[in-house]
Amino acid sequence: MSIRLTALLSLLALALAGPGRGAVEPSAMRTIPAGFYEPLQRSTTDAARVAVAAFQLDECPVTNAQFLAFVTANPKWRRSEVSRLFADASYLASWAGDLEPGVAAPPDAPVVQVSWFAARAYARWAGKRLPSTAEWELAASAGYTRADGKDDEAFKRALYAWLARPVPTVLAPVSSIRPDFNGVRGLSGLVWEWVDDFNTAMVTGESRADSGLDRDLFCGAGSIGAKDPSDYAAFMRQALRSSLRASNTTTSLGFRCAHNLP
Amino acid sequence: MKIPTLFLFACLVGALSAADAASDHACCSALAAGAFTKNSLYQIEAAFTTDAGRPVSLGDFRGGPVVLAMFFSSCNYACPILVADLQGLQEKLPAETRGRTRFVLVSFDSEHDTPRVLTEYRNLHQLDDRWVLLHGDRDAVRELAALLGVKYRQETNGSFSHSNLITILNAEGEITRQRAGLREALDETATALTTMAKSEAHPGTGGSR
Hints:
The structure holds two protein chains of two kinds. Chain A is an alpha+beta fold. Chain A has six helices and ten strands, in the order αβββββααααβββαββ. Residues 11-22, 203-215 and 219-225 of chain A have low confidence and may be disordered. Helix content of chain B is 41%, strand content 21%. Chain B has seven helices and nine strands; from the N terminus they run ααβββααβαβαββββα. Chain B is globular. Mean pLDDT of chain B is 81; it is low at 1-32 and 205-209. Classes of the chains: A alpha+beta, B alpha+beta. Chain A binds chain B through residues 43, 45-47, 83-86, 116-117, 120, 196-197, 199-202, 214, 216-222, 242, 245-246, and chain B through 38-41, 43, 75, 77-79, 142-143, 145-147, 149-153, 155-157, 159-164, 180-184.
């Protein structure tokens, strides 16, 4: 009874808040054409290229304003309410309060310090999903002016310059990033991003212990080999994903959503 | 002396909706104990199906010790060893604890490990009625794996590479111990599980974490 009443009240509150201050632009989505993802590391039985079907991807990473709308509608994802199981102690730590991103988290900057569980819950709430590693890497392989960023010198320069810069205390607006060939912004240049299957990266956690895979810890991993040792950015992403637990949050890790083509 | 019919009717409706709520939680102890604790794995909303074809959520296992592991039925390297480890663990438990502990195996293989295939697996490995084998869709499997810290991926030949991890949950569904690897620390794991189970069955008579 009281649950229903609360639900009714919050619905009412939402309706009243309606087009006012709570309203946030839904993310524009861009179509990523079908292509191939070449896994950085693969087992001996894996194909060198994985076919990826065309899909839709948010033009920009999810912003603080958008994430605020999510936590407003879903109290259990507010900083003070969230279970430690689903988000660690630094979840939204740069926000001024539960429903107040504050000066360190401008509305149009990417939301960071969000866990995989939170990112996934947001995506579900938005009627979308997180992209897979294959989808995300396919999208991120686009340059500014070419479908393949490996042939785009300006794109590569910007990418490596970003990797060399420390993460700023206050992130730039998502709109400050130059759109790529597909019209997508910020796959590099702002923050790292969660993917749905981040926990496929098979390393045991402690990087110095990972010169080989322990057959007792991992089944069937066999031998793995890197496809292109010069793809430094891909190595960094792989290393990041394999070091994460789903409840982890960091100041440089955000996310965006994907959708199957209608 | 006449009790108004309306009052009786109200009682009846009340009783019926209480029964509904109980079946929502599937287990009466869950209802009695209220919401799940902040660290309870049972907060996971993912839906699973048992090898008997019954829909369950993990919260249905609330109330006693649970030993949880992920596997897939066509695995012929690590999973048989993992299951043998779990059977060994079951044998090491004192009778009282053994009688209260559930062994829950969740398959990575959403596509092939249907309840029917899981039943065959149960028969093949002679798993008794303390064991539950679960099928979940890809989303449910990924979410549970993420909660447990299990990493896995499907290879192009259809098999799965995966962490070998045994997780012990207390009556509230909180992780009290995890054992990584194979053939290791069975005695320690059994002792830890027994201590936990006894402290929960007889609160206040020793046994702490």
